[in-house]
Each structure stands twice: as C-alpha cells, then as structure tokens.
Amino acid sequence: MNASNAGTAPQLTARAIILSIVLAMVLAAANTYLGLFAGLTVATAIPAAVVSMAVLRLLGGGHILENNIVQTGASAGASISAGVIFTLPALVIIGYWDSFKYSWVLAIAGLGGVLGVLFSVPLRRALIVEQNLAFPEGKAAAEVLKAGENPGRGIKILAASAFLGGLAKIVAESGMKMLPDVAATAGSIGKAFAYVGTNLSPALLGVGYIVGLNISIVIVAGGVLSWDIAIPIYTSYFMDTVASGDPEAVARTVWATQIRYLGVGAMLVGGVWTLFSLRGSLLSGVRSGLAATRAGAGKIIAETEKDIPMKAVLLGLIVFTLPLAVLYQAIVNSVLVSIPMTLVMIVAGFLFSSVSAYLAGLVGSSNNPVSGITIATILFASLMLIALLGSSSQLGPVAAIMIGAVVCCAAAVAGDNLQDLKCGYLLGATPWRQQVMLAIGAISCALVVGPVLNLLNETRGIGDPTAEHPNPLAAPQATLMAAVSRAMFGGELPWTMVWIGAVVGAIIIAIDSMQKRRGSTFRVPVLAAAVGIYLPLDVTMPIFLGGILAHLVERSAGKPADPNDHERMHQDGVLFSSGLITGEALMGIAVAFFVWKFKNPDVMAVAENFRFGEWAGLLVFAGLGLLLYRTAVEGARRICQK
Questions:
Q1: Alpha carbon distance 203, 632 (integer Å)
Q2: pLDDT tens digit sequence for 398-450
Q3: What domain range includes position 569?
Q4: Which residue from 511, 489, 487, 510 is spatially nearest to 499, judged by alpha carbons?
Q5: Which DSSP letter does residue 473 get?
Q6: Judgement on whether residues 132 and 237 belong to the same structural domain of the protein
Q7: CA-closest candidate to residue 587, choices 268, 88, 172
Q8: Quick check: is 599 in a domain?
Q9: Which of 272, 303, 617, 631 is a good FRET partner for 426, with 20 to 30 A between their CA atoms?
Q10: Same structural domain for residues 145 and 201?
C-alpha cells in the first residue's frame, strides 16, 4: 500500500465500524474471562485482522486499510478488559461492592479508554515517526494484512479451534460434568504436603503457545516454587497443628490462606522495580509526549500524518474528565477530596499513558507492565488520600482503586493505540481515523465487561475462596490492588508471607539482572514469576505445556529465510490458540448464564454413567495439543519454505 493512496482508500466505512464493534465486544468478553482465570490477556489484533479480511471479502472487497480499521477497533477488546479486571474486582474483594455497578464500570472503562486514546495522540509522531520504536505486535499485524492472500484458511482455523475450545468447556466440570476440569494428585511425607496437577483448559494451552517457552517456563516455575517448595516447608515447620485429611484439600487451604501472598509480595516488588529499572525510558517517553504537543504548528500535514487536532484533544479531555470528577465526588462526598483525586488521575493518566506507549514500543503490549504502573498509581494516590482523609479512612482504599482503575484503562489503551498506529503507519493509514475507531472500540467494550463481570462473580466467584465459591476465579492483579490499598490504610494481611514474597521477588530480579549481563536470551521477568507464584499450579501447568508446543514448532519448522517472517511463521498456531481461548471463554460465559438463569450449578449435568475420569480428560487435552501442534507446524513450514 502506497502512502499516497491513503486519502482515497476507504477506511472508516459503516461495515468496518460495525464489524469492529462486534469483534471488540466478543474479544473483550473472552479476555475478561481469561484475565480473571489466568491473570493474563492476549493480543487480539491478528485474529481480528484475519476475520476482517475474510468477512469483508465476502461483502465485496475489503481494502487493506479498511481491514486495518477493523483490527484497530477490535484490539480494544484486550486493553479495556485488562484495565478493568486488573482493578475493579478489587472493589468486590475488599467488600465495597457486592456486585459490579454497571453504570460505574461503564464510566470508568469507557471514559478511561477514551482518555487513553486522547493522551496518546501527541505521542504518535514522537514514538513512531521520530524514534521509530519497534512496536512488535503492530508490525506483525501489518505483515498479516499485507500477506492476507488466503484469509479463508485463517477463518477455518479460528472457527474449528473455537468450536473445539467451546466443546471442551461445555463437557467439562462447570458444564455437563462429563470430564473433570483438573487432573491432579497430592501427597504427604510426614508433615510435608505437596500438590501437582494440570488444568485441562484448552484456553490455557493456547495462552502458553502465544506467550512462548521463555515466559511459560518462568510462570510454571513460580507455581512449582509455591506449591512444591513453599507449601511443604510451611506444613512441615510452621503449622500449629499436624494437618490431617485429604492432602489436596490441605495443600489448597494452606495456599489460599498463606502461600499465595508470597505472590502478592513478589508482584509488589516487581512492579516497583520494573518502573525503576526503566526510569530512563519512562522519562524519555514523557519528554517525547510533551515535545510532541509543541510540534507541527502551522505546517501542511499529509493525510498519513493527520492526528486528531490538538484543540479537539484538549476539549475532549475536559468533556470526558468531568463525569469522572462527579463519580469521585459521589464516592467521597467532599469537593476538597474529589478535585485532588481528579487532578491526580489526569496527571498520572498522561504520565503513565506515555510510559505505557513507550514500553509497548520497546517490548510489546503483551509484556507491557500495566499492573506495575497501576500499583505505582495506587501507592501515590493513597499517600495523597491519607493526607486528605486520614490513615484509617474506610473510603481511602476505594478512592485509591478508583483512581488506579481509570489510569490503568488509559495506560492499557494508550499502549494498544500506539501498536495499531504503528501498523497503520506501515500501511499508509490515516492516524485520526484509527484514533477515532479505537475510541469507539473502547466504549463498545465498556458496554459488555460489566455484565460479564457480574455473571462470573455470581456463578464462579472472584478473588478469595468462600463456602459458596471454594474455587473462584483468581483475579491475581485485582487481589494485589486490593491488598496494596488496604495495607496503606491499616488493613490486615499475612505480612510475614508478603515480606518473604518481596524477598523472593528481589532474588528473581537479581537472577534476571545476571542473565541480562551475560547476554542470555532466557530472561526471568519478575512479574511473570510473581503471577505464577500466586496462581494455582494447575493453572500454570497448561501454560507451560503450550510454551513447549511453541518451541517444538520452531524446531520442527526451522528458520524462515527472511528474519522478518519469524512472527508470521507462528500465525496459524496463534490463530488456533486464539480460537481455543475465544471458544472456551465464550462458552464459559454461556454456561455461567444458564447457571445464573436457573440458579442451579448442575443445570447442564448429565447422568452419572456418562461421566468420565481424569484419564479421559487428559486424552482430550492431549488430542487438542496435538491438533494445535500439527496446525502450527504446517503453517510454519509453509512460511519457512517460501
């Protein structure tokens, strides 16, 4: 695509907007489920691009820039869901909400997302044009769109794997109860209890394939540290009484009440360290944003360089900030507190949107430490609120989380927006059209995440185990935000475990620094390890297995002749994985709806003689892994042999 054709090629067409909105909503729902379940969200640009190419071709064409608009809006499904699930479930965890208030979730997610787009507008020229940062997902999406000679194949892979992922979910323990969700065992030697197992979730297998071997090893190592080292040590030496009963139940109880807080301490240290270690890059990103606001005055701008006008950006900031100021006032009922909250939100939102955009350009959106950014926001906001409300305020944690939620949504969207704009820059798209489309996508996602959160909270539970929901969705980042905000205002935590976790996090940081000095390609990112420590081992194990599959695909297919084709060689594997994730997540939401509708967790259960054991579940799981491997290898070899 030549940049000179950008002004005449169709971009913001009605069909592109409608398709983008539909995809954004679907992918937001799927990522909301996945993020609460596994503490991770996955980029959605490539699946959205493939769907767009196939659907628009059926409708009579589909220009490359029109497809780019679709993937731009649809990609908000990952960023908005991440911004919401990292923060707002904390309000349920700390007991401020019994359920998610739809209007509040809509306001925070929608307005935070739009602010993220506006904050990132002045960053485009500085980071994409002048500094020419990599933005790896943006480049990969551009390559997929350029090479989209056979989107029909991609759609078949997505549809087939989504069907299989959904089928696996509906026959599992939470649906028809034909197959178990987990294959696990536990045992004890003396007083030492240990646990090993794997979730049989196709979605987690797909997540592991997408994040790759390095990250998946680090995540599962965190799980092994928690479940097979920390739990045996704790049950052997630190339990007041000798544990008795089912070893698996003992291990899960110890994890839920004590050991998982090692992950909280490690995540807290990891978030602060990540920001500190990247301080030079962060300052550079902020300086670029400030400098870009002063650039371009009085110049004739080409179509491919036209952003949303700065006057419109400033007006939008005022218009979209005022409702948030009203929301903050409704929480604290004091203008002397709500105005500083709003000002902190604006300043932190712009600064951390700049940070997020810069880091997305360096390491990609998938590795962007948005949770670390949010921790820093909550800590800073808490210090300000302690001065205004007092250190024992009941509303202090709530107010801090509300500020952090808007900043988290804005920062996640800003990083995603720059990825999309990089893709558009490589294709010759018009920036302002993409910026408008991402704002539309963000608002569309905000419309659906609230109901999905309520449905999952009522049927599965979120955060801490309860008698009603003994195995809830873990929501690790939101639990961390709840712990940090409560701790700042005098709340009780298993502080011994938190401090030990902080030391563990420091050791992991030291190991990663040593790997960096050695020039090793294997890195040990502390936030990935911390999430692994916090999650149940059976959740981290299939992620590890998916990472192994990605590694085996590379070994079987060989290296592509063109190094730029490295991302494309995994395209079929990523599409199959994305289908597994989307199919399972959407079916999980559908099952939750029927459970809620009939107020019966066994509403879909089949008769006892149609239920099978763990070995049957393992065989189904292995079969899906084999299909993923074969599909990925076939696609990778096709790219490598070109």
A1: 16
A2: 999 999 899 889 988 888 888 888 888 888 888 889 999 999 999 999 999 99
A3: 170-275+478-574+586-640
A4: 487
A5: B
A6: no
A7: 172
A8: yes
A9: 631
A10: no
Q: Count CB neighbours of 309 within 10 A.
A: 11
Query: Which of 427, 459, 491 is at the close of a domain?
Result: 459
346 and 290, same domain (yes or no): yes
Tallying the residues shown for the chain, one arrives at: 642
Give the pLDDT confidence of 437-450 residue by residue, as tens digits. 999 999 999 999 99
pLDDT number for residue 298: 47
Max distance between CA atoms of the chain, in angstroms, equals 78
The answer to whether 120 touches 28, Cβ cutoff 8 Å, is no
- Distances in Å between the alpha carbon of 144 and those of 3, 362, 427? 18, 20, 11
pLDDT the model gives residue 184: 73
pLDDT tier at 290, thresholds 50, 70, 90: low
* C-alpha 4 chain-centroid distance: 36
Question: Over 60: is that where the pLDDT of 519 sits?
Answer: yes
Do 292 and 126 contact (CB within 8 A), yes or no? Answer: yes
pLDDT in tens, 319-358: 999 999 999 999 888 898 899 999 988 988 887 787 777 7
What is the phi/psi pair of residue 468, to 5°? -75, -35
Say yes or no: 267 and 294 in one domain. no
* Judgement on whether residues 507 and 451 belong to the same structural domain of the protein: no
CB 183 within 8 A of CB 198: yes
pLDDT at 622: 94
Three-state DSSP at 524 gives coil
Nearest to 425 by CA among 162, 138, 225, 150: 138
Residue 308 has pLDDT above 90, yes or no: no
Please indicate, yes or no, if residue 194 is contained in any of the structural domains: yes
Read off the tokens for 472.
Answer: 């809830």
383 shares its domain with 401: yes
Domain count, the chain: 2
Mean pLDDT (the chain, rounded): 82
Measured distance CA(49)–CA(72) in Å, rounded: 9
pTM above 0.85, yes or no: no
Who contacts 531 (Cβ-Cβ below 8 Å, separation ≥6)? 39, 40, 219, 222, 263, 267, 476
pLDDT, tens only, 125-146:
777 877 677 676 777 778 778 7
Taking residues 233-250, report their average pLDDT: 72
In a domain, 363, yes or no: yes
- Backbone phi, then psi, for 466, in 5-degree steps? -135, 175
**Dist CA 559 CA 582 (whole Å):** 29
- Do 154 and 184 share a domain, yes or no? no
Looking at the structure, do residues 130 and 231 belong to the same domain, yes or no?
A: no
Residue 470 lies inside a defined structural domain of this protein: no
Are 461 and 473 in contact by the 8 Å Cβ rule? The answer is yes
User: What is the rounded CA–CA span in Å between residue 154 and residue 159?
Assistant: 9
Which helix (H) or strand (E) is 199 found in, with range?
strand 192-199
User: Are 195 and 251 within 8 A, CB to CB?
Assistant: yes
